[in-house]
Amino acid sequence: MMSNLLLFVAITVISFVLVACYRSVAIRNSWFDIPNHRSSHREMTPRSGGLVILIMYSVLIVFQFFTDQLKVSELTVLAIPLGIGLVGFIDDTVTLYPGFRFLAYLILVAILVVAFSPLPPLNLWGYLVENRWIISFIYILAIAWFVNLFNFMDGINGIAGGQFIYLLAASLSLLPAVHAPQLTLMIVIAASVTGFLCWNFPFGKVFLGDAGSTFLAAVLALLMLYTVKFQGASPWMWIILCACFVVDTGYTLVFRIFTRQVWYKPHASHAYQILARRWSSHSKVVVLIMLVNILWLWPLAWLAKVSADGGMIWCIVACLPLLGICWSVGAGKRMPLDKTASISGK
Predict the structure, then answer these.
(1) pLDDT tens-digit profile of 130-184?
(2) Distance in angstroms (rounded) separating the CA atoms of residues 15 and 244
(3) How far is CA 30 from CA 33, 198, 213, 268, in A?
């Protein structure tokens, strides 16, 4: 326990220093995120700071491979989130065509899902989906969407990094203990994100960028597949844990489609963005999301875990109040430019 704590502290410090170095280089080279009418920030801010997290992850898995803690097949699977993060970094740099970017994510996610196939049957309200190809297809679409939605939600200070830390901690608390190499990997990633958050919350001095947000989403997807495959975790448990992100993006997308907006264009009408503008604060929104995660979603995820056939029901129970919040704040509605003016993070 003490050695794990020391490792966490050491990696957090290293991450903090590396992000500081990256930020300095980014400022000198003008690698900035430029605010526009959709932004939640007023000032130009260094982007792609999540690249530090990718580098620390890469160093660890290569070290574990050469010290015989990982097999070639395991290293290959663990490298897939790096590929997804690399696509995000390229998009940060040259702005990829959205269709090409999504196709790249889809291909990499498909490789990840196939690596874990066959996956357990899906329980849909008592009906078991047992066809391995249908199950894989569902997981591929769901995870590709999750990678994108995690990126969509990375719009205010600390929200993506905070959500990642929460999901990692929640999974460790709800599922059986993991073996030493996997635990070390989780500690290093969590510490790397913590070091980054020192620069991103409560004030955004550097951004994750698509490189960081998509990579973190892919790591979570890998963890989800691993726990579903080898630890008997319920997919419904994972959906409940991620419900703040899933409901906000899902409700907003459906509302924009049904109101005949150009749904695939960038916008600033997610519930979290509206609340950040209304409250003139990023921190208040992030704290609210963490409170919902811990006080509402975590207990329901536990119920979904211990309930043999009730996971889908608990998922509906978890999501209904969140849908109500999205509706009440007007998520997805068209807004004039002056209503989408950026705010400073605090």
Answers:
(1) 999 999 999 999 999 999 999 999 999 999 999 999 999 999 999 887 777 888 9
(2) 27
(3) 9, 21, 21, 25
